[in-house]
Amino acid sequence: MSGLRQGQGSGPWPIEAVDLRRTYRAYAGWLTRRYTDIEAVRGVSFSVAPGELFGLLGPNGAGKTTTIKMLNTLLLPTSGTARVLGHDVASQPMAVRSRIGYVFGGDKGLYDRLSALDNLRYFAELYAVEPREQRARIGELLELVGLAGRERERVEGYSRGMRQRLHIARGLLHRPEVLFLDEPSIGLDPVAARDLRRMISDLKGQGVTVVLTTHYMAEADELCDRIAIIDRGVIQALGTPAELKVRVDSGPVLEVEAVGVTQEHLSALSALPGARDVGATDLDGGRTLITIHAEHGSDLFAAVAGQLEGVNVARFTSREPTLEDAYVGILGEGSPRREPGAVSA
User: Fold this and answer.
1) Sign of dihedral through CA atoms 241, 244, 250, 255?
2) Which residues have C-beta within 8 Å of that of residue 232, sequence separation ≥ 6?
3) In terms of pTM, does the model score above 0.85?
4) What is the pLDDT of residues 76-90, one digit of tens each?
């Protein structure tokens, strides 16, 4: 799959990757070492349009971060080519670095014993922001990320969400044209994650091209113009969230929350004509959430209710397929060994 889009105008794309590969050499043993080549990324190709918010989804170890690190020059590709803003990532790394930003999840990358203001002053020097512009730029970014008024506090006293907002301010100091966000919302509470999504959406509105990796399906569905789903170093699907949802190839999804569900009930539901991908998740208090993907044109309400006679049903609803449903289905096509439960991070 090339993943390259045609007819988007002239000039270089912000990001163009063609058959990108990265192989690691691992070893085992002490007295006699045995070497094994591991292909983390195996022929990834895609392009990102100006001002687009492009998502990379996949389970842990799928190759998302390795791909990001090759594009932002932290790793050299084993083979293939990648150009960012017209510059080759292997032969022109400094030209790439001066025009991109990189924000990653977690606590690393900041100096805890310094204030947020001192952190931004330090990184402004590293990014060669003109001294006469630094004060105004830092003030502008503190307002953007919602830290104005808290900038003189030490970072060691910041919450996880405040740290992530400071990470984004740091990554934007030099006005990058392309911003890489590697799982920026990991570990955030719902309110902080919502604020972060709003901030990312605002960046897109300012014309910044954004590449986002995430494990959160709702986040990707809300933010991304297009998404590539990667697994075992290969892009399994690429398209808009709506295009990926179509690949689920099913009708409504029935959800039943009930108490007293047995394996016999689940087997009977799986055998119903028109029912596919019947799953069950244990909840608190002995409750079970049953998810049934119905085939197009199937009306399963009465049949499902009949199979659950005698079971205490608390909720019985129908919804349209989500991006998470598409994600699970696509990984099932490309990775038959993977269990649906691997969706969440």
Assistant:
1) negative
2) 42, 62, 63, 334, 335
3) no
4) 999 999 999 999 999
